[in-house]
Write a structure and sequence with these properties.
single chain, Trna Endonuclease, Chain: A, domain 1
Amino acid sequence: MPTAEEYEAKIRPYGWGDLRKLWAAIKNRDTPGWDAGKALEYLILKAFELDGAKVRWPYSVTLGGEEVEQIDGSVSVLGLYCLLETKDEKDNIAIAPITKLRNQLLRRPAGTIGLLFASKKFTDRALQLAPFTLPQAILLWSGDEIEHCIQEKKIAAFCEMKFRACVDFAITDFDIRFG
């Protein structure tokens, strides 16, 4: 199992074209050299980095010498500070990762938002319950939106668009493809 530093070194030279190829591999569930879920985690962070965001690669939070949280990464982008969670599973994502991220946000300053990226989609129940996490804003990103970001070679402006829809209309799953 590669270390976090090895994954970071692996993704560092990637450009948008490389991310497009990695995304295709993720969709095909064929990512040799990446442990389960790691390819998506690092793809998202690299996309933010390529789009000018300040990225903190995956890290652990310890309390009293014991790991209490594993964070998939964080980004500072266009005045937003965001914790990331990624889910690369063969099925649509249920509510559990949303509640996990909400609990992580409860331990952060009020202005911190959550970004939850799924390689597939979210279940109908997850989409119905997600707005109840407010005022801890958690913005949901589907696989179709991830693909759109990679094709358009931008993610920062789309993040701001999603956040604005959440502020204006309390929509946590605003689809950037139709914004």
